[in-house]
Design goal:
The chain folds into 3 domains: 337 residues, Glycosidases (TIM Barrel, Alpha-Beta Barrel), CATH 3.20.20; 210 residues, Rossmann fold, CATH 3.40.50.880; 143 residues, beta-galactosidase, domain 2 (3-layer Sandwich). It has a 9-stranded mixed beta sheet. It is an alpha/beta fold and 800 residues long. The chain is globular, with a radius of gyration of 28 Å. The chain is 28% helix and 26% strand.
């Protein structure tokens, strides 16, 4: 098979900051279509309409169980069922002029009855986990069958790779590692896993005496050590469980690395990626638990791009900040690359009972662009029907997609088509633009490595923090305080921030942030404590709480940070109320501790009854720190005001300023044209002015109907030397300069008004929108200001 089409050099790669195709930047926009769930007679139509939407790729699973229904009998050409013709599907993709990303498993999930693993394999109970509905990843029998599957499927796929003239750009290796353990809140306790666990412990401790000392146990050798099952009753027991969680990250890395090596040995040369799941009922509070499972994978398999899943369901004030958090937390795993890819970007709903609305999804897509996303796969673009008796929940797969099962257009189609057309014209420029983040939110990953402590759907905890002397519940504080208060307030204040992996970051990289915000619990390794102290001494501004660490991860005494800052924990304050200047008796989450400090300090908050200091600010070296020991979850307007005063008021950079605090905004900066996102997640229309310090010398007035959004250019050069768009509050879909005219296709919601400020190289004589004259004026700088009224469709703006 020769799919060569005359290109001299064919290379698709994941570069430092973007996807590159044959050397040029490309925004990767894909739609998910499952060939095994759509009629063969409609394949060409589904693909043609995806192409019409401006997408450049299609993504799909290749179910192992579908193509090998019986052991050692594979069908890839449709001889047993037309929908098994994988080669016919690839030919249709090529014919449509699209590229593709393939997902050959072994696991696929996707609400498929057997998750893609053949029943003839899972019937062998020896390879199945005893506690979780999954195979034992590293069981030799399972891996042997995976390798046989790889022999067959990669023989089919290999000639279709991009560098051989085919459409395959990337390949996903397996699917959502660790998801089963997270959902079940349980480890796989099979003997295969136990053997790997003992080997991990031997590499960690070296001598059994060291393990016995750390865990308070009496083993004669590593061969007698069993994985922990009972909840920890003391700190050595907690240290053992922390190591057990850490072991799983090494175990998952070993499994994914094995698959990566097997694929490469079979001639797969395209880049690999893997997706991280974690949204639950439209919330991403638990998402970072799953992200933590990939830290070792990022180290051991840097060639695998780690991608996000985004399933916000309905976007609102309560979850809009979760999308930014997920994008940036996945980016914290960087692997020396900053290419943010959303492998599953919600398009429709996986439950018919969850109604999604195109205007909300459009808002989320644009907000994700503002977060620096460089590619996204719309999941699902087309609805599907499961092969008979193969659906995990029933015959139909996905609702409210862009296309239905028979490739008919649904309401989301127009939204996707506008997005795709915009990215087709401006995607490379968007990938070149950058966020400016002056604030770093530190994620100390050991606080998130807790999937075995908190069964997801059981609403209980398997540890008693107070009984262990930790005082603070990790799940409660990281979700209610860090995510849904501190990060929410950052997002609400339009502060651009990065998620920072404290253990991986260097002291030098930390110093690049004007502000660091850190959730601190009573334990943290000594090196990380030293980094935070060094950050302050080097001139940084540190905000942390509620605790000051006093143990390392083995629960040995370690108060490096407290000694460096000259502070320590004082008396326990049972009263959960604090006073701050101008506001008294403000509710906090639970007890706090008084703060004892040496030297000069500024007391910023005290307990309401006993007036003991529970928030101080203090200088150290060239920097300063603020310690808040009485933390709160967002419940009152005072909480927002206090956080702004304590943590945000002194920020000077990385912030888009809106006169209306309810408007969400961010900016991507580039000398070749910047991009402004502004959105309204609320149910009422909003008006605001937006300031971009250092980019524009004036304000941008914007009006946003409910759930409306823009992703519009700032200082964008017009083609042909015609000047530039100073700003626009309408989406600009395409720009053409010809015969002394500037033609722009623009869009806003029906009934919306927008303004476009142009700095032109010629004096305009006439301006029209869809052929109707538009009044225009000239400001004091000679720039042309247009006021437009919109009808909810793409309109043609002509300036001549």
């Amino acid at each position: 098979m020769n799919l060569q089409d005359g290109r001299d050099e064919m290379k698709f790669e994941i570069a430092q900051d973007s996807f590159r195709m044959d050397g040029g930047r490309v925004f990767l926009l894909s739609g998910e279509i499952h060939y095994f769930r759509t009629p063969v007679s409609t394949w060409d139509t589904h693909l043609a309409r995806l192409k019409e939407c401006g997408a450049n790729a299609v993504t799909f699973y290749i179910p192992w169980s579908w193509h090998e229904p019986e052991k050692d009998t594979c069908d890839f050409d449709g001889r047993t069922d037309p929908n098994r013709s994988l080669t016919g599907w690839l030919e249709a993709i090529k014919r449509a002029g699209l590229y593709c990303m393939v997902k050959p498993g072994p696991y696929m999930l996707a609400e498929y009855e057997d998750k893609g693993i053949p029943p003839w394999l899972t019937d062998d109970r020896e390879i199945m986990s005893r506690q979780v509905d999954m195979v034992t990843y590293m069981h030799p029998k399972y891996l042997n069958r995976v390798e046989k599957w790889y022999d067959r499927i990669f023989e089919v796929l290999s000639p279709w790779q991009y560098d051989r003239g085919g459409p395959i750009l990337m390949m996903q290796i397996c699917n959502e590692i660790g998801l089963f353990n997270w959902l079940a809140g349980s480890a796989d306790y099979s003997e295969t896993v136990a053997a790997y666990y003992r080997k991990y412990l031997q590499e960690k401790f070296g001598e059994i005496e060291h393990l016995n000392g750390a865990y308070g146990e009496k083993h004669d050798g590593f061969e007698t050590v069993q994985p922990p099952k009972e909840p920890p009753k003391n700190l050595p027991g907690l240290a053992r469980w922390i190591d057990f969680h850490e072991f799983h990250r090494h175990y998952f890395a070993r499994y994914l690395g094995h698959l990566e090596g097997q694929a490469r040995r079979r001639g797969i040369t395209v880049p690999f990626y893997h997706n991280i799941a974690g949204w639950v009922y439209g919330q991403a509070l638990e998402y970072s638990v799953n992200i933590s499972m990939y830290r070792e994978i990022a180290k051991q398999s840097p060639g695998i791009l780690l991608a996000a899943d985004h399933i916000p369901e309905n976007v609102s004030y309560r979850n809009a900040h979760h999308g930014s958090l997920v994008t940036r937390a996945v980016a914290a795993l960087k692997q020396e690359r900053e290419v943010s890819f959303v492998a599953e970007m919600q398009a429709g709903s996986r439950e018919d009972c969850v109604l999604t609305y195109p205007v909300e999804l459009e808002l989320f897509y644009k907000k994700s662009l503002g977060d620096g996303v460089k590619g996204m796969n719309l999941y699902m673009f087309s609805q599907g029907k499961n092969p008979e008796r193969r659906g995990a929940f029933g015959p139909t797969f996905y609702w409210q997609t862009a296309l239905d099962y028979n490739a008919n257009r649904l309401p989301l189609y127009d939204t996707v088509q506008r997005l795709g057309r915009f990215l087709k014209n401006f995607g490379p420029g968007v990938t070149a633009a950058r966020r400016k983040a002056g604030t770093g939110v530190v994620f100390y990953w050991p606080y998130w490595q807790t999937e075995l402590f908190y069964p997801l759907f059981e609403r209980k905890t398997l540890i008693d923090p107070a009984g262990l002397g930790i005082d603070f519940d990790m799940k409660q504080y990281r979700e209610a305080v860090l995510v849904d208060t501190w990060i929410k307030f950052l997002d609400r204040s339009n502060v651009s921030y990065d998620i920072v992996d404290l253990q991986a970051a260097s002291r030098e990289s930390l110093s690049s942030y004007e502000k660091l915000i850190v959730l601190t619990l009573p334990f943290m390794d000594g090196e990380s404590q030293e980094k935070l102290a060094g950050y302050v001494k080097d001139g940084g501004s540190l905000f942390f709480g509620p605790s000051i660490p006093r143990w390392d991860l083995s629960f040995e005494a370690c108060d490096t940070l407290g000694k460096a800052l000259g502070v320590e924990k004082g008396d326990r304050i049972e009263e959960a109320k604090i006073d701050v200047p101008g506001c008294s008796y403000v509710a906090c989450m639970a007890h706090a501790y008084s703060i004892e400090s040496k030297g000069d300090q500024q007391v910023l908050a005290v307990s309401s009854k006993e007036k003991k200091p529970c928030c101080i600010r203090k200088s150290l070296g060239r920097g300063s720190f603020t310690w808040l020991s009485a933390v709160f979850s967002h419940a009152t307007v005072e909480h927002a005001a206090i956080f702004n005063d304590l943590a945000l008021k002194d920020l000077s950079g990385g912030r888009v300023v809106c006169s209306n605090p309810l408007v969400s905004a961010s900016c991507l900066y580039s000398d070749a044209g910047s991009w402004l996102f502004a959105g309204n997640v609320h149910q009422e229309a909003l008006e605001s002015t937006i300031s971009l310090p250092g980019l524009l010398d004036g304000e941008i007035p914007v009006t946003l109907p409910p759930k409306a959004s823009i992703f519009a250019p700032v200082n964008l050069p017009l083609p042909g030397g015609a000047g530039k768009i100073v700003y626009s509050t309408a989406d600009v879909i395409e720009i053409i300069s010809q015969d002394g005219k500037v033609i722009m296709d623009v869009y806003r919601e029906r009934g919306s008004c927008s303004r476009v400020l142009l700095e032109l190289s010629f004096r305009p004589a006439a301006v029209s929108l869809d052929g109707m004259a538009v009044a225009h004026s000239t400001d004091e700088k000679g720039r042309t200001l247009l006021s437009l009224e919109h009808n909810g469709k793409i309109q043609r703006l002509q300036v001549e």
